[in-house]
Each structure stands twice: as C-alpha cells, then as structure tokens.
UniProtKB/TrEMBL annotation:
Its EC number is 3.4.11.9. InterPro entries: Aminopep_P_N, Creatin/AminoP/Spt16_N, Creatinase/aminopeptidase-like, Pept_M24, X-Pro_dipept-like. It comes from the Eukaryota. Keywords: Aminopeptidase, Hydrolase, Manganese, Metal-binding, Metalloprotease, Protease. The lineage of its organism: Eukaryota, Fungi, Dikarya, Ascomycota, Pezizomycotina. GO terms for molecular function: manganese ion binding; metalloaminopeptidase activity. This is Xaa-Pro aminopeptidase. Catalyzes the removal of a penultimate prolyl residue from the N-termini of peptides. CDD domains: Prolidase. PANTHER family: XAA-PRO AMINOPEPTIDASE 3, XAA-PRO DIPEPTIDASE. The keyword Isomerase does not apply. It is an enzyme of class 3 (hydrolase). One of its GO terms (biological process) is proteolysis. The keyword Hydrolase applies.
Length: 507
C-alpha cells in the first residue's frame, strides 16, 4: 500500500542591567533597520503571512535561481535537472510505512510533499514537469483517490504534470531535443534503478546539490512566510509550556503541552526532537529524554520548534518552575539575555558571523567576571578560550527547509575551539534567516577539566562556581531575518524575565 502525503527589542546599554520589571500585554514582533523600529502585534503578523501563503510555492523561481548559480561557475551550463521525492519504505518486519520526510532538494524545486514522485526541469525551455504516481486501484480501497493531474497542476507551480511511468520517455525526449550538448543533472544516490539517462551526452551528479544549497540560503517572500507561520505556532506552544510549568510533575508533560498546541494549529511535524530539560539536564545541549521528574529543580530549558510545510522554526526559552527566578538563575539569565539582544542588534547584510559570535563570548566573559565566576583580565580569558567552558557551541545557524540549514560552510577542523562548532561561517546575506541562540551552561563534564588545567583554572573561581551548578544552563533563541540595513525578529515567544515569571505564576 502506498501512502499519499501532501500539504501544500531595545535594551539598556549598561552592562548586565536587568530588563524592565514590567509585563507586556501582547506579544510583539520587532523589525529593526538602520533608522526605524516598528512593532506590530502577533495577530497582524499572522494576517500578513497568511495572505502570502494563499499563493503557490515558487518552485519555478527556485529552479531559475539554481540555473543562475550554476552559470556563475559555467556560463554555458544547462540541460535537464532530475530529482526524485522520498520513496515509500515499509518499516522493518512490519507492513506499515516508515515516517515520511520529504527530500528537501526535491521540495525546493516543486513544493510537493507527496511520496514516490519525480521532477524534471528543462533549463532551455524553462519548463518544470512534475511526475506523480499513477492510480493504484488496490491503494484506492484503503486510502481513497490520490491527487490527480488536474489537482497537481492547480496546486503546484509547475508547467506540466505526468505520471511516473512516463519518466524515461520524457527524459529521452528532452535529451534528443537538446542534441549532442545535452546534460542531465541529478543527485548521487537519489536516482531509482529503473530510470535511465542513456540518451544524454553528459551526466553530472556533483554540481546540482551545491547549487541548490547556495540557492536555499536566501529566502523569498513565500519561504519567509512559511518560517513566520512555523514561528507563530511554535511561539504559541512555548507559551502553553510556560503556563503549564507549575502544575507539571515530569518533563514529558511539558513536551505534551507543546505538541498539543502545534498539532491543534495544524503543525503536526516537528523540525527536530523537542528538548525539555529540567534542572542540571539543561547543561546537555541536545538532551532528548524529556522524562525526568521536575520536583526540586530551578528551571526548565525548552528548545522546540514546529515545521510548516517543511520549513522549520527553532526556538529556545528558559523559565523558572516556581514562577520566580532564583538569584543565581536570574544572574545567568541576564547575561544570556544581553548576549542575545546585543548580538541580534549587530545583524545586517554583510556582517561576518564570526565577529558576532566573538562578541557573544566577550559579553559572556564580562558577565561571568561581574559575578565572580571568572577572575582576571577579560582579554586574557578570551585569548585562552576559557569562556568555551561555559559557552561551548556556536551562536547560531541558517534556518529554512532544515533546522541546521545548508550553506553555512562549517569547519569542524578549525583548531580554534571558539569557532570549531559554528554551523555558520562567513558573511550573512540579506534574505537569509539565522538563529541567535547564546547560552551559558554549568556542565561538570565540560568544566571540571578546565578546573584541572592551569591554563584555565587561574581564571575560574571554583568557590563562586559552586553556587551555580543547579542552574544547569540558560539558552535563549530567536529566528532572525537578515535585511539590508538590519534585521527582523520572526519569533514572538515571550522572553522578558518579568513576563515569563508572570506567565508561570498565572499557570
């Protein structure tokens, strides 16, 4: 049986000043450019993205963008792109299908979320052809009638729709029409055995993937609207988790609260496995158990985001289970809050991400020095990279069809530990979407080796540090659209400490 799936802030400049002790009455959405800051309600934002999403996913514009990128390296590049969707695969020792996740490269050129499909793009004719599975009478008994050719033409931004049993004949026709210069571009390992490229003079399995990866970095209006909607739903779900905090006994209850809101709003797919980490577990960056008791713990860190039609959100909040931050938790929250606000404020087209990440470390060092956790000279601490004991990961990454989206050019071989785990390196362009997710963590496994190393131990006051282990970790993360002169924050989940405390207390 073949399943058919388809869908179409300003802040004080004083070091570590606590955010205003006020509670906002509405969630806000902030756009910052060189000269202006505009705030709108979440309801207005929702109205805007819903209007955009009434149109079709711009598949042909994406195909043309990929051609342009290919031709930057080879001016005469052209031919036929061929990609296949995810194939239906049954679970091992079971007659039910595995969970479906569409291939992102196929989706980028079609907007189609069905299994067992294919697409061909003739670059010379600027013609996009989608291939859908033919009707299987046995499948209709169980699943009903599939999407028809007319349905697909109405739904997707393609020029023609055919059945998948016409793939080889269509490819042969395209190759013969192009003549001796015909080239087919495909992805290695993602072409079915029955598909033949014999009629093409040349086959290229290398160039298409990096070209699409480059194209995906800069989002168009429709893609941004998808990410806005994912953020809108996920922000509502984060609010539900915070309100559930005081009555929950286990982390899993908070995960359930998040999932319920997402599913209720039509977002059944998560961009990644949600993280609901209570107490010291918040120091584990990708904690996945979500099952521990909450009693006696100070805070919960929730890192969770839903998808909307394959486009991701990625949001993190940290909040007190009691409804009031302890002194130690608030100390760390204020440092991370300033890291996030100041680094977000630096964002605009042309900024080097390494510089923004480095600035986050400088703020973390200043804050930990003020608390007495670190001691000594800030520049020496930075040069020794001691701050990596408390902030070991990168400031953020690209966001789009994947949570850790393509095009970031990470360098895991970097000998500098401050940059080794950055998923984004280089200059950020207008139209890209990045996460800004600084954190400060108290992970014994990571920090204790620093305490035993004389290069680092002279900068850490172990006696002061002792008071902060139970904080676990604090991370705050928003999704940011890069503009020519600034940024736009797409995330509306509350993060002001007073507003978070009030939401927890209201229960």
């Amino acid at each position: 049986m073949r399943p058919r799936r388809f869908s179409c802030l300003n802040h004080s400049s004083a070091p570590f000043a606590r955010p205003p002790n006020t509670t906002a009455t509405v969630r806000s959405h902030t756009t910052t450019t060189k000269n202006t800051t505009t705030t709108t309600t979440a309801a207005m934002v929702a109205e805007n993205f819903e209007a955009v999403l009434k149109g079709k996913y711009p598949a042909k514009a994406h195909a043309r963008r990929v051609v342009d990128i290919l031709r930057q390296k080879a001016p005469k590049a052209g031919g036929v792109f061929y990609l296949e969707s995810t194939k239906t695969k049954l679970q091992e020792d079971n007659d039910s299908p595995e969970h479906f996740r569409q291939r992102r490269f196929f989706y980028y050129l079609t907007g189609c979320n069905m299994a067992d499909c294919a697409v061909a793009y003739d670059t010379a004719a600027d013609k996009l052809t989608l291939f859908i599975p033919p009707i299987d009478p046995d499948d209709v008994i169980w699943s009903g009638l599939p999407v028809s050719i007319d349905d697909a033409l109405a739904r997707y931004d393609v020029d023609e729709v055919k059945y998948t049993n016409e793939v080889n004949a269509t490819l042969a026709h395209l190759a013969s029409r192009a003549g001796p210069a015909s080239t087919v571009f495909a992805l290695a390992g993602q072409v079915s055995d029955h598909v033949t490229f014999l009629e093409f003079a040349a086959k290229d399995f290398e160039a298409l993937k990096p070209a699409i990866e480059t194209a995906r970095v800069v989002k168009d209006e429709f893609e941004v609207a998808m990410i806005r909607k994912a953020n809108h739903i996920s922000s509502e779900a984060h609010g539900a988790v915070i309100r559930r905090a005081r009555s929950a006994r286990y982390e899993r209850e908070l995960e359930a609260a998040f999932l319920e809101r997402c599913v209720a709003h039509g977002a059944k797919e998560m961009a990644y496995h949600p993280i609901l980490a209570g107490g010291k577990a918040a120091a584990t960056l990708h904690y996945v158990d979500n099952n521990a008791p909450l009693q006696g713990k100070q805070n919960v860190l929730i890192d969770a985001g839903a998808e909307w039609d394959n486009y991701a959100s990625d949001i993190t909040r940290t909040f007190p289970l009691s409804g009031k931050f302890t002194k130690e938790s608030r100390d760390i929250y204020d440092i991370v809050y300033k890291m996030q606000q100041d680094c977000t404020g630096m964002i605009k087209a042309g900024m080097l991400w390494d510089d923004i990440h480095l600035h986050a470390h400088k703020i973390a060092i200043a804050g930990l020095l003020a608390l007495g956790i670190l001691r000594g000279d800030a520049s020496e601490i930075l040069a020794a990279r001691t701050s990596a004991a408390f902030f070991p990961h990168g400031l953020g990454h690209y966001l789009g069809l994947d949570t850790h989206d393509v095009g970031g050019n990470p360098n895991r071989g970097d000998k500098d530990m401050l940059f080794r785990y950055l998923r984004l390196r280089g200059v950020i362009p207008a139209g890209s979407v990045v996460t800004v997710e600084p954190g400060v963590y108290f992970c014994e496994f990571i920090i204790k080796p620093y305490l035993e190393d004389p290069v680092h131990s002279k900068f850490i006051d172990a006696a002061v540090l002792e008071r902060y282990w139970d904080v676990g970790g604090v991370r705050i993360e928003d999704n940011i659209l890069v503009t020519e002169n600034g940024f736009e924050n797409l995330t509306t989940a509350i993060k002001e400490p007073a507003e978070i405390e009030a939401a927890v207390a209201s229960g």
